[in-house]
Amino acid sequence: MSQVLPIIRLNEEEEMFREAVLDFAREQIAPHVMEMDQKAQFRRELLDQFFELGLMGIDIPEAYGGTGGNFFMSILAIEALASVDASAAIYVDVQNTLVNNAFMRWGNEAIKQKYLPQLAQEKIGAYALSEPSSGSDAFGLKARGEDKGDHFVLNGTKLWITNAAEADIFLVFANINPELGYKGITAFVIERGFDGFKVGKKEDKLGIRASSTCELIMENCIVPRENVLGEMGKGYKVAIETLNEG
After folding, report:
1. Domain 12-121 carries which CATH code?
2. What are phi and psi of 136, to 5 degrees?
């Protein structure tokens, strides 16, 4: 019988990285999986260890405080964590493939300098697209943003937002010009402490319970103009192209 070769062969660095993450997951996460699932709460000290190990900024360049790896290494880490606990994998997945990925690809230098070090070293991010009436349909969102010159005022609700209970930085999509349809959709960076913004109800899920899923509420939420991610009216592009990879 002919030998079946793996589709992908890891180099020495990749194999060592994968094994290190797998060892961490088996030794540090596995003993707590059942308890975390029952309580629907991921242990904060494990999230802190994710940052200490560089798992929350894997492909963020070292110049911005990240690990300096690549997207494939993020996938290796997510796969290794998922073999032990899906909730653990989701925290690392959303952070790297959705939030960090969008900031690195679409952020200007000021946004990168301000937020990438925080995301790599201490703060959890969340990706907020889904809404009560549109799910992840980027073209159908109802959240609105009003241009006030040096800032925008956002109103709307997001649902089922992963990592939201622990997150401090949120990538939120709203339409600033509904007359243009999807071409009015714009991506905004919102911090937990912004006026008019709050994290709402945490969902009680059937599975993957230690991974938080919450609603976000924006009631006249004030967002500085410099917190637009990418071009105004190009948020649909940010949303779709990020989801294609995340």
Report:
1. 1.10.540.10
2. -95, 20
Please give the structure tokens belonging to residue 45. 């000290």
pLDDT in 10s for each residue of the chain, 246 residues: 556 556 578 889 999 999 999 999 999 999 999 999 999 999 999 999 999 999 999 999 999 999 999 999 999 999 999 999 999 999 999 999 999 999 999 999 999 999 999 999 999 999 999 998 876 666 789 999 999 999 999 999 999 999 999 999 999 999 999 999 999 999 999 999 999 999 999 999 999 999 999 999 999 999 999 999 999 999 999 999 998 876
Q: What is the architecture, at CATH level 2, of domain 125-245?
A: Beta Barrel (2.40)
Q: Tell me the C-alpha to C-alpha distance, in Å, between residue 36 and each of 39, 42, 75.
A: 5, 6, 23
Query: Which two tokens mark 170?
Result: 């949120």
Distance in angstroms (rounded) separating the CA atoms of residues 226 and 45:
33
188 is written with which tokens? 């905004």
Q: Residue 80 to residues 20, 57, 88, 130, 172: CA-CA distances in angstroms?
A: 9, 16, 10, 27, 29
Specify the DSSP class assigned to residue 232. Answer: T
Q: What CA–CA distances, in Å, run from 66 to 92, 191, 246?
A: 14, 20, 18
- If you count DSSP H runs as helices and E runs as strands, how many of each does the chain have, helices first? 8, 8
Instruction: Note whether 152 and 145 are within 8 A (CB).
Output: yes
Amino acid at 237: K
Domain ranges of the chain: 12-121, 125-245
